[in-house]
Amino acid sequence: MAALRTAPPAGAPRLSRRRRRGLVRGGQYAAFVVAVVVLALLADWHSIQQNFLNPATARGLFPDMITVGLFNTLVYALSGSALGLAAGLVLALMRLSSAAPYRWFATAYIEVFRGLPALLIFIFVAVGVPLAYPGRELPGGVYGQAAVALGLVSAAFMAEIIRAGIEAVPRGQTEAARSLGMSHARALRTIVVPQALRMVIPPLTNELVSRIKDSSLALFIGVTLTERELSKFGQDLANQKSNSTPIVVAGVCYLAITIPLGYLARRLEDRQRKERR
């Protein structure tokens, strides 16, 4: 009797697993479209346009949004990344060193600065360094402070990226160089490190994207009107005009930098993947 109750009706088509999965996915897509349409219909688009996408307010932001906000953002991020790359390379070599004190120092630095929020590093550089060294200041003023703060953070992440790249270089490369009479240091400098840096360009590009976003923390150093980066520039103009359009425009400027860099990193990863095949 149980078999008779569970048996499908005669002649009823039986759905395959693939067909059922397609129907479920179609229902999910339909539910998502309905939810988007409902939210769009309920939104007050006039208020959104006036407060977030006001054309008159947006036009008044240029060219200062580019010549001040975007320019300073790039200066902070690029200078901090350059310092981080140099320090990260040294830390990576120390992490791989046979000398235990070097390894201990590099490991402690990497763990500490990867674990601390970047905001604390900016506050330490802006407040702690002047207190520790009275009467002295970093070269470059705010630009120097922002570069050092971003460099300290970036060095910890770049060190791990570079270390992974060095360890990915086949050991035979070093052995071949040593068999030709090269010292270990020379083989590392001329053979291993150049190959490692080439392999880690995609993750280093992603790291640059992170530093571009972290540059917004420069406001905690105490920037002047000409030293404001995109986030601070948009915030100040939003408060001045009682309108959020400057913040939206600042966000678009961030995306204009980070999206192409992210796309470049993905292309480089795909290219390296094809070369390894």
TrEMBL record:
Keyword Cell membrane: yes
Residue stretches spanning the membrane: 27-48, 68-94, 115-133, 247-265
Keywords: Amino-acid transport, Cell membrane, Membrane, Transmembrane, Transmembrane helix, Transport
ABC transmembrane type-1 domain location: 70-265
Main localization (coarse): membrane
Pfam families: BPD_transp_1 (PF00528)
Signal sequence range: none
Keyword Repressor: no
Bilayer topology annotation: Multi-pass membrane protein
Compartments where located: Cell membrane
NCBIfam families reported for this sequence: HEQRo_perm_3TM (TIGR01726)
PANTHER family per UniProt: GLUTAMINE TRANSPORT SYSTEM PERMEASE PROTEIN GLNP, MEMBRANE COMPONENT OF AMINO ACID ABC TRANSPORTER
Family statement drawn from the similarity comment of this UniProt entry: Belongs to the binding-protein-dependent transport system permease family. HisMQ subfamily.
Protein name per Swiss-Prot or TrEMBL: Amino acid ABC transporter permease
